[in-house]
Amino acid sequence: MLSHYSPPSPSTISGALSTDVGLGGSEMTHDHHALWEAIRHKHLMLDAYTRLRNPTFKDGKWGIASNFGRFRYGSSKTFFIFEELVKARDAGRIPAEPVTCETGFNAGHSAILFLDVLPKGKHFEFSWGAAPYAPFEPQNAKLFEEVYAGRFTYTFGDTNVTLREFAKARPEVKCDVIFVDGAKGVENRKNDIHLLRAMSKPGALLFGDEANTAECMSGQVDSSDPLCRMKYETEVAYNELVRAGFLRYVGCSKEKKIGAPRDLVCAWTFAA
């Protein structure tokens, strides 16, 4: 862990984050492992940057990139998104200059994933990070605006408001890839997904956090089934949207938690 070493300086961290690790065309498959390791390194640098300014921050805290402890999101959630992005890009399902949209910025681990796997893309972030859960979010967003100048846009506020306002102000922006990981709860999550669908291209790829089992996320069982229950019940939103024909199931990350409720990232596409 980084805490075993002397912390790097802010300029060193910023330099590491600004390093271009994106690979183009067929190189993506040939150097798949190198790209993944470069992104993991950036995640560690982001942890260091965040901890320098927030001593209580723990590596990967409240994020999908932690490789430590019983959650191990970095080897499950993050890698699943990475693999699905690479497959979709190589298959031509994501354009060369894509637009990615996300709710729930936190420290920025997932934003790095989208910005570096899709190095010619633009990333639009909608989030309401603040104390006590993510007091570091606004400062990290400013860092991303500098490091990924012209490619990263951060909108602070309630997504029920900001997504509507953005869609009206920027109707030309259409998302190719989406990650929903902001407001919790069934209705809040469904609301975000519906609002994002309105500003997305047909068949856009959707990733969602707080998912649980393949049986629930694919709609094989209904929301009353024990396989469809977790801490927040947010996963019920995905189940109901799949069973209503609004989403089409693609797949889920592997379960990595030890002795805890299921908590996965899954993927869908919007039905036509």
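The record above closes out task 2.4. Task 2.5 opens with a second protein, given below.
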Amino acid sequence: MRTITSLIFSLFFLCSFSQDLELELLASNFNRPVSIKHAGDNRLFVVEQDGLIRIINSNGTVQTESFLDIDNIVINTGNERGLLGLAFHPNYATNGYFFVNYINNSGNTVVSRFTLDTNTSLADPNSEFIIITYNQPFGNHNGGDLAFGPDGYLYISSGVMEALVETHKIMGKTLIVSWVNYYELMLIQLLHHKTIAFRQVILL
């Protein structure tokens, strides 16, 4: 009885202090937006599935020129392919690095690093450095979100393909990319609470 009374009181307390939320339109007229990120400043970056990243300025205006345009190397047929993810390096303000996840014209996932062109304050489309590629056997369930965690790791969503877990070990998993010293990239695959690590030397 005491538990029920406490629960009722808690619900009453929460409802008494509930707040009304209102939505305010900041910007519009985007083409198939799939993600929105910030780079630590007062702008927002909208990822469009066709292969563009657009900039929303602090006053809500949308910059005419795209931050990045890789439409020519991105396949956007169907509803689950295209440019799918964006993450800015924790030290983006000093190194200008950011990462994207997209499905290329061969239907495979590509995770790449691009660099800011300091002369234009836009991305240099010719600065692509491919981090990892892997096969996407089907045109649907293509995951692609990217995010840096508080641990400094880059988390890569690969998508969910349950029937292919055994034959395509990378599918349906979260890859963790650790930026360590000596220009070493460590990829850690999480599989049923087991950690499988493999390394390759790259130039970051």
